[in-house]
Amino acid sequence: MAVAVFCNVCFCEPRKPTPRFSLTSCGHVICEICLQKGKKDECLICRTPCRVLFLSKQTNPDIQSLFMGIDTLCKKYSKEITQISEFQEKHRKHLLAYHRQKTAKLEESLRKVTQQMHQLQRMKPPEQTTQLPFSSTSRNPLSIPSRKQNGYSCSLHPSHPSTSE
């Protein structure tokens, strides 16, 4: 059911030999007769400067929707929202499929490279392990190396006899 249209000044409703109705930029509906009584570019209701738009079947659909019933608007916009939602869902699925395909290709490449690395490691002769000079397996970790190894002698006893001896 459409919203009843009436003049906000004289409260007349549209009839067969009806004057045209206008919508002001401040949101008031005024019939043509009352509009002629008022000042140009000023609203008869709130006295603010305004523009006037004559209402007709050619009026912008956004303006026409102001006069539609809520149930009609809900049906109209519900259909539009459903179409938009389906469109967006289709694109999300397309993007997801792309990323899944890309991930599968990358996983396959990773699997192949890993396989090649294992094959190369099997083909390579085993490396001989040489012990490092300071390897902990070559000597007791609690032993202290002798200072003579580097050519210097270090003794805890003085080389000169002390006078106390």
Care to describe what's here?
With 165 residues, the protein is mainly α. The chain folds into two domains: 1-68, Zinc/RING finger domain, C3HC4 (zinc finger) (Herpes Virus-1, 2-Layer Sandwich), CATH 3.30.40; 69-122. Helices cover 39% and strands 6% of the residues. The protein contains three helices and three strands. It is rod-shaped. The relative contact order is 0.07. The mean pLDDT is 81.
Q: N-to-C terminal Cα separation, in Å?
A: 127 Å
CATH superfamily of the largest domain: Zinc/RING finger domain, C3HC4 (zinc finger)
What is the global morphology?
rod-shaped
Order of helices and strands: EEHEHH
Strand content: 5-15%
Number of strands: 3
Q: What's the pLDDT, averaged over the residues?
A: 81
Domain count: 2
Class computed from helices, strands and strand pairing: mainly alpha
Radius of gyration, CA atoms, in whole angstroms: 48 Å
Per CATH, the architecture of the largest domain is 2-Layer Sandwich
**Can you count the helices?**
3
Q: What's the CATH class of the largest domain, please?
A: Alpha Beta
Q: Going across the major beta sheet, what is the strand order?
A: 2-1-3
CATH fold group of the largest domain: Herpes Virus-1
Protein name: Putative E3 SUMO-protein ligase RNF212
InterPro entries: Zip3/RNF212-like, Znf_RING, Znf_RING/FYVE/PHD, Znf_RING_CS
GO molecular function: ligase activity; SUMO transferase activity; zinc ion binding
Keywords: Ligase, Meiosis, Metal-binding, Zinc, Zinc-finger
